Fold:
Amino acid sequence: MREMGERGGRPAESRANDSPAGAVGVGGGRARRLRGESARPGFLRSRAPWRAAAYLLVSGSAGLLLCALLLVAGVAAGALAALLVGLPLLAALALVGVPYAAWERRLLRLLDGTRVPDPHLVPDRPGLPAWLRLRFREQATWRELGFTVLAAVVLWPIDLVVAGCALVVPGHLLAALPLLLLDGEQVNVLKLWQVHSPATAALLGAAGIALLPLLAYPLTVVAAGRAALVRMVLGPGAQEERIGELVNSRARLVDAFEAERRRVERDLHDGAQQRLVALTMTLGLARLDAEPGGPLADRLAEAHRQAGEVLSELRELINGIHPRVLADRGLPDACADVADRSPIPVTTRFDLPGRLPAPVESAGYFAVSEALANIAKHSGAGSAGVEARYAGGRLTIEVTDDGCGGADPAAGTGLTGLADRVAVVDGRLALSSPPGGPTLLRVEIPCTPISP
Structure:
C-alpha cells in the first residue's frame, strides 16, 4: 500500500474552539487583571480573595492526594518491576500527567473563569494503540508529567500553607475571645501562647479582623502566580499554537471554498444554463419556420446542434463543480449517478448512517469520480466496484477494478491532487496497484454524521 496525504494529528479542541494562541493571550490578560484587582479600592468587597482561597485549597488538597497516589504507585511498580509485571505500571505513570493536567486546566475556571486549550492532538486512527503512540511522542505529555511531579512535591505545600495562613491565622485570633468565654480560664491561641485575660483576647480578635483583609492581598497574588504557571506549562506551546492556527485557517478556507463552489454552480445552473436552454428552444422553433432544404435551414440546424453541444458541456462543467444530486440526495446517490455514467460497469454498495458534513461528502464524491475516470482511461478494466461504509468515526471508501494495475500517482493520473483534496478534510488516501492488477484505492476521512 502506498500512503498519500500523510499528515499528523489534529488539535483536540482547536476545531471547536478559538485558536490556542488567542486563548492563551486572553488567559494571561486575565491573570494580570486578577493581580491588578488587588490594587483597586473595592478589591476586599469582591469575590476575588475568596476565589483565590478556594483555588489554593482545592489545588493543594488535590496535590496532596496526588503525592500519596504517586508514592503508592511508584513503590508498587518498583516492587513488581523484577517480575516484569510492574513495567506496564511504570509506563502508565508516564501518562499520569495527562488527566492531572486536564484537571488543572479546568480548575482555573474556579479562579477567574478562563479556559486553557488542550494542547494535545487527536490520533489519526481510532483505538488505544494509536492514542498511546501519539501521546508518548508529544512534547505536551512530558511537560504535563513534569508539572505533575512539581505539583506533587513542591506546589501543594505552598498552596496549603498560603491558604492556611490567610484563613486559619485570622480565624484563630477571632475565636480567641469566644473560646475564652466558653472555657472561663484560658485559651491557647495558635498553640503558641496562653491567654487568660478577656481584654487580651479582645485585642487579638481585633488584630484578626485587621489581619484578614491584609492577608487577602498576598493570597490573591500567589493564586494568580500559580495560575500563570499552569497556563505557561500546560497550555499549548509555540508549535501547538502554530498547528492549531493552521488547522483553523485551513478549516475556514475549506468552508469558504465549498461555499464558493456552490455559488458558482448555482449561478451557472440558474443563469447561463437557462439562457442556453432558451436559445436552443428558439433555434429549434426557427428551424420549423425556415424553408426545408434551404441554406437558412442548414445554418439553423448547425447552430441548433452547436447550442446543444454547448449546453451538454455546460452541464458537465456544472456537475464537475458541484453536482446538484450531491447537495440534494447525499453521497450514495451522487456516486451512483457517477457509476451510471461510467463507460464500464460499476457496482456500488453504501452503508452510511445518514448525511455527512458537506466537505466530507464533496471529498468522497470527487475521490470516486476521479478514480472511476482513471479506471476508464488507463486501467483497461472490464468492471469496477465502489464500496463505502462508516465505522469507528471514519468514512471509508474503497474503489476496486480488475484492470492491468500499475497505477502510479507520479504519472499524472490525478491521484496526487486527489490525495491533497482528501488531506484537506483530515483524510488519508492509500493505493494498491501491483502490475497485472487488481487495483484498490482506499479513502479514509474522520467525520461525524449530521443527520440520520
Q: What stands out?
A: The two ends are 33 Å apart (CA to CA). The longest strand covers residues 384-391. Residues 10-236 form one domain. Strands lie at 2-4, 10-11, 121-122, 187-189, 193-195, 346-351, 384-391, 394-401, 428-432, 439-446.
